[in-house]
Amino acid sequence: MKNVTILFAFISFAAFGQHDHARATVAQDTIKKSIPKEVHAQIGEAHMMIHYHAPAVRGRVIWGGLIPYGDVWVTGAHSATNWEFNKDMVIGNKTIPAGKYAIFTIPGKEKWTVIINKNWEQHLTDEYDKIDDLVRVEVMPKNLTVTQERLSYEISKESDNKGLLSISWEKIKLTIPFEIK
Predict the structure, then answer these.
(1) Do 23 and 37 belong to one domain?
(2) 89 lies in the same domain as 145
(3) 24 and 59: one domain?
(4) Smaller CB count within 10 Å for the chain: N or C?
(5) How much is the pLDDT for 29?
(6) Does residue 71 share a domain with residue 24?
């Protein structure tokens, strides 16, 4: 009976360890697939959601390797990362109407370009067309001291109508300010 209990504890740890912070520090991420994830946030009157697939580093060279510098990247895996919000938003001094959009980036060694594109429903960058870009903003990447194993999106509230979109992976973090109209 003791072996069954230990086996059950191992299965529980493996299945739920990602959601339990205390256990996640002990467990290694061994899932090989890019995990589908969602982020929800409420800033003022605006509700927003980001849906993406989170690839893992898994010992690979990411920047300038798996993800080349200077090319448009889907900023996730499998399909375009999409960002949906129910109120108009301002990014880089440009107003974006409420709706659903794709997030793309162009990684660079010194600076990155973050793109909000109208075509939110596409596979990787197969159908990407610059003509559908609503906003392009340049951001300076910040170096992380600890490796972010899986790609992570976060939306944080700065004030009643201002927020930050953060994208972190490997040793890089991007922060994009936005304002709700």
Answers:
(1) no
(2) yes
(3) no
(4) N
(5) 56
(6) no
pLDDT at 53: 96
Give the pLDDT of residue 155: 97
Q: What angle do CA 134, 46, 43 make, to 5 degrees?
A: 110
Name beta bridge partners: 114: 105, 137
Tokens of 28: 């290694």
Same domain, 16 and 48: no
How many angstroms separate the CA atoms of 80 and 20, rounded? 28
Residues 76, 10: one domain? no
Cα(54)–Cα(165) distance, integer angstroms: 16
Pick out the chain residues at pLDDT < 50: 1-26
Residues in the chain: 181
pLDDT in tens, 28-37: 556 678 999 9
Cα distance between residue 164 and residue 170, in whole Å: 20
**Four-point Cα dihedral 147, 153, 158, 161, nearest 10:** 170
CA nearest to 113, candidates 141, 143, 88, 94: 141
Q: Domain range spanning residue 144?
A: 33-180
